[in-house]
Structures are given as structure tokens and as C-alpha cells.
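User: quick one, sequence for these C-alpha cells?
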């Protein structure tokens, strides 16, 4: 049976199979280009015809696959994959399965959502990169289930004001901008002066989560907080000088032990809704794309619910007439 090219379902690369002088062949050409694959098959046929053996390819290791996958990736992703490289660097990718992922999570001491973020998601991304190149089968993993936690109510204006009063001016300005715009901490820390127009009370905010810009209107309090960070002549580069968010957290956690920085985004939505602002306008102001995502930020107290249902008509069972 002469050698012929074929493709396996779900694989990009060509494979070659057949028989030459009684020797069976079924191997990957490691190329998705038909001409290159045909050249590989011809060279293999000639080698076998003159008494050679089917070349054994060295298995692709996780470390080598990770190097290819990480080309051009962000630093955060490099850190996550780097943890797995320390565990699996020389392990062939076609030998990594569910048991290895579970063992890696146990070795790193992570469970639930954290295990998904630091083990399963980056590890599966590397293996899928290798699978698309024919180095291993496509792996379907059973991921750990994250425990559902009830969202804590957002801080009140009085609580936020008390925290701002305890903070240094720079950290206080970041808190004011967050709670007055609904922006996430990472987006605020990435804010550049070139994207801020205090005269027009406007910011062009780069949202790292969605990888796009959104226009943000500034309240007088937010504009005043940004303006207090320095004279106009010095407003260049990043608005906030911290190189990492942990420097922000050090000051914030000491001043606000009762809630997290992300709850300021919850407060932004809840305060506007309680003030009677249309929910769709709140969604637009905070950059929420769907009602389902926005619903997680809506907090209604029992007292507010009782006040709302008080508008219902008074319907009771009356005693029967004698």
C-alpha cells in the first residue's frame, strides 16, 4: 500500500500512512501545508525504500508547548503558566490528563474558582495549543465547581466618606473616582492623563476586561479629586503612581476593613438606583453590557422592598355578615 496523506478529524496537520517494503507507517507530517506534507511523505518513502526506519519524533513537552503558546502573551498569563511549568516542564503533553490537573491544584493548594484560574484555565490553554498542532489529543477536563457566595451589601455613602477621610490624598482620590464612575480598580490604576479632560468632565477609560474604551462622565467630586493630584503642567503619564495594585490595597484595607475595593462598583450602581435613575442609564454609566451581569450589582434591602410593596392595595378577608 503506497503512502498517502490524510487528515484526522479535528486536527490541522496532515498525516501519512501506508506500507513500504512491509513496514507499516502512520505518523504526523507536523504541517498543515499540503505541499510540505507531500515533501515529508516523499522523503519518508525514499528513506524506507533504502532500508531506513520510520523516524521516531520526540514527544512535545509541556515546557516547549508553553514557550510556543506564550509568544506575545501578557505578563499575567506568563506568571500563571510559569507555575505549571515548574510542575510539568519535561512532561510530554500527551501524558497530561485529569489526574495531573487535580494533582497540580493540590500541589499549589488551590480549590474551586482559584484552581480554575491558576491551574485549569492556563494549563488547558497550553494543551489546546499543542492539540491544534497534532502533538496530543484534545482534552476535556472536569473543572472544580466554585462555591456560590452571597454578595455582601455595598457600603453606604457614610461608610465610604469615613474611609476617604482616613486615607492619604492619592488613595482617597482613587476611591472617589471608583465610586463616582463605577470603574474597576485595574482600570483606574491604568488611567493616563492623556485620556482625562477635566475641563469637559470626561474620561476615556480603557477597560481591561473587555479590551475596549468607554466614555465616562465625571462628577464634580471626581473631577476635583483628579485635579488635586497635581498642577496641569505635571499631568503626564499615569494618573496614579503605583506600579501594582497591592500598594493601593495596603492603604485601602487598613482604612476600610469592612468592605472591598470592588464593592465601590456595587455602591455606584446601588446608589444611582436608589436615587431613582433608570436602570438602563445606570447600565450605560457603569459599562455593563447585559442585564444579567448588571443584576449581580443590584442590592435591594428588605426595608426598601417593604416600602415598595406598601403601594399594593389593602386586600383582607372580612368576617361574614351575621
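Assistant:
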Amino acid at each position: 500500500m503506497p503512502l498517502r496523506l490524510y487528515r484526522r478529524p479535528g486536527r490541522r496537520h496532515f498525516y501519512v500512512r501506508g506500507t513500504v517494503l512491509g513496514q507499516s507507517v502512520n505518523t504526523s507530517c507536523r504541517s498543515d501545508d499540503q505541499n510540505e506534507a507531500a515533501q515529508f511523505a516523499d522523503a519518508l518513502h525514499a528513506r524506507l525504500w533504502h532500508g531506513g526506519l520510520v523516524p521516531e519524533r520526540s514527544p512535545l513537552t509541556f515546557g516547549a508547548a508553553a514557550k510556543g503558546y506564550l509568544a506575545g502573551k501578557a505578563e499575567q498569563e506568563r506568571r500563571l503558566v510559569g507555575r505549571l511549568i515548574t510542575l510539568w516542564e519535561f512532561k510530554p503533553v500527551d501524558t497530561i490528563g485529569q489526574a495531573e490537573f487535580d494533582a497540580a491544584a493540590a500541589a499549589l493548594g488551590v480549590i474551586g474558582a482559584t484552581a480554575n484560574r491558576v491551574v485549569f484555565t492556563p494549563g488547558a490553554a497550553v494543551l489546546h495549543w499543542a492539540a491544534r498542532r497534532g502533538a496530543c489529543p484534545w482534552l476535556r477536563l472536569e473543572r472544580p465547581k466554585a462555591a456560590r457566595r452571597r454578595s455582601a451589601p455595598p457600603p453606604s455613602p457614610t461608610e465610604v466618606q469615613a474611609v476617604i477621610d482616613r486615607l492619604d490624598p492619592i488613595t482617597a482620590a482613587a476611591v472617589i473616582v471608583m465610586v463616582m464612575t463605577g470603574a474597576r480598580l485595574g482600570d483606574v490604576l491604568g488611567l493616563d492623563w492623556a485620556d482625562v479632560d477635566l475641563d469637559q468632565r470626561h474620561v476615556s477609560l480603557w477597560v481591561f476586561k473587555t479590551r475596549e474604551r468607554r466614555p465616562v462622565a465625571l462628577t464634580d467630586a471626581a473631577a476635583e479629586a483628579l485635579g488635586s493630584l497635581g498642577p496641569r503642567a505635571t499631568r503626564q503619564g499615569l494618573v496614579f503612581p503605583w506600579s501594582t495594585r497591592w500598594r493601593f490595597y495596603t492603604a485601602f484595607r487598613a482604612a476600610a476593613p469592612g468592605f472591598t475595593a470592588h464593592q465601590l462598583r456595587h455602591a455606584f450602581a446601588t446608589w444611582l438606583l436608589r436615587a431613582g435613575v433608570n436602570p438602563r442609564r445606570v447600565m450605560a454609566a457603569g459599562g455593563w453590557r447585559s442585564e444579567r451581569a448588571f443584576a449581580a450589582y443590584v442590592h435591594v434591602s428588605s426595608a426598601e422592598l417593604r416600602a415598595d410593596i406598601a403601594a399594593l392595595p389593602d386586600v383582607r378577608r372580612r368576617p361574614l355578615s351575621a
